Amino acid sequence: MKTPCLTISTTIMTTKNETLNLFDSHRRTT
Q: Alpha-carbon distance 23 to 16, whole Å?
C-alpha cells in the first residue's frame, strides 16, 4: 500500500517541478 502512495507523491513532485520550470522560463522571457 505504501508503494502506490510513494509513486503518486513522486509524480506530483515532478509535475510541480515541471510547472515551476515553465513559469520560470516564462518570467525570464518577459
A: 11
